[in-house]
Amino acid sequence: MSRVPLPNVQEVNFDGLVGPTHNYSGLALGNVASMNHQGQVANPKEAALQGILKMQSLMEAGYAQGVLPPQQRPDIGALRDLGFRGSDREVLAHAAREAPPLLRAVCSASSMWSANAGTVTPSVDAPDGRVHFTPANLQSSFHRFLEPFTTARVLQAIFHDEQRFAHHPVLPATPAFADEGAANPVLPATPAFADEGAANHTRLCGAHGEPGVHLFVYGRRAFGGGREPKRFPARQTLEASQAVARQHGLTEAQTVFAQQHPDAIDAGVFHNDVIAVGNGPVLLYHEMAFLDEERTLDELRAKMSTPLIPVRVPLEAVSLEDAVASYLFNSQLLSNPDGSMTLVVPGECQEREAVWRTLQDYLLAGHNPISEVVVKDLKQSMRNGGGPACLRLRVALSEAEQTALSGRTLLTPTLVADLTAWVNRHYRDRLAPEDLADPLLAEESLTALDELTQLLQLGAIYPFQLNHA
């Protein structure tokens, strides 16, 4: 097994491009921001440009940055699978009239939050010395369950070299296993192998090229046992996390499985990356992140070859309500050449006095590597429940692995200009939920995506392209 440090390894953040159908349908149960903004008018153009600007600024600051394309939306094929017939226009019209919730689901632009795209293990940790990928099955909601097929094709198109990259199938779609002693009959049951990807996974290490320990965080046990939330469903199961670890060849010495605190889930912490973020040896987390905080930290310390640097934010400093509203922990924690770290936070952190005070007086003034806080405007994404950390999939790559990437997805000034012009050509600046039935929106989206695959040099990755190949 490859456990020798690799030289010249960079963490590349692959951000998801916001899709042309970005809207506020409030589809995500347990995502407070998404639920609170349901029905409001969205601005897809502004959302996409805000995301590109964040990527550009990080690229210009010296961080390796990539981009992932959005999904094909509306997913008219999904509507056809559910029995709607006729032309595309007729299918949209029938769905809008007969099943509005289904129409909203197949128009979701949720793939922008690429932290949910899958789980990644770098080559230094894998037994075969390859980078491993498992697309998340996203079984917790119908609108996200539609994503894995295209996500897998995108990852395989970019990370195509079989000598350097390994791709695993999504975990099986299964029913929930009933646990009469612990299940809450009010909440929808979580499927047994519900997997939400890197939003519930953190790799802790020294430098990115050094062997690491993988922290998998789950909300419930599919086969029973332990506390469960009472208000909102848990989206990740222990069994799913264990299955992904097995797919990637990770051993017990390389993994820690910790349960998310049920009270945090009930407060709106639907993924672990809303309450904790790790980078290198640093774990920045809220007091209420883990059900068994002490055991989690002790196991990390015992398994890491580099001393763990826990940065704990107490409940008295930042309430769960403030943590969810500001997305303080849904921030990007980035390594700098001098050993310091930069924390990229959403603008909402400035709007909460307790959060901003904690950033200035506790994190920046504390004994930890965090030396800089950078604020980004991501309001369009934030109103739907996704901050800086939601927007990116982290992939640690050596120079040789970066060179082996296919397509044109590593960000450059030229690609920034091309993507910006593409958004300005194709995106609307106003989109309300009732606009999703507009057949012109579907045509505009397909035209934009077809051009995007050419711009990114990815070939045919979307169903409409494959069906016409």
Number of helices: 18
Number of domains: 1
Adjacency order of strands in the biggest sheet: 2-1-15
Fourth-level CATH superfamily:
Succinylarginine dihydrolase
**In terms of per-residue confidence, which ranges show pLDDT below 50 for 5 or more consecutive residues?**
none
The percent range for strand residues is: 15-25%
Q: What is the CATH top level name?
A: Alpha Beta
List keywords for this structure.
469 residues, 15 strands, L-arginine/glycine Amidinotransferase, Chain A, alpha/beta, three-stranded mixed β-sheet, 18 helices, single chain
Explain this structure.
This protein is of the alpha/beta class and 469 residues long. It is 33% helix and 16% strand. The chain has one domain: 5-stranded Propeller (L-arginine/glycine Amidinotransferase, Chain A), CATH 3.75.10. The protein is built from 18 helices and 15 strands. It is globular. The mean pLDDT is 92.
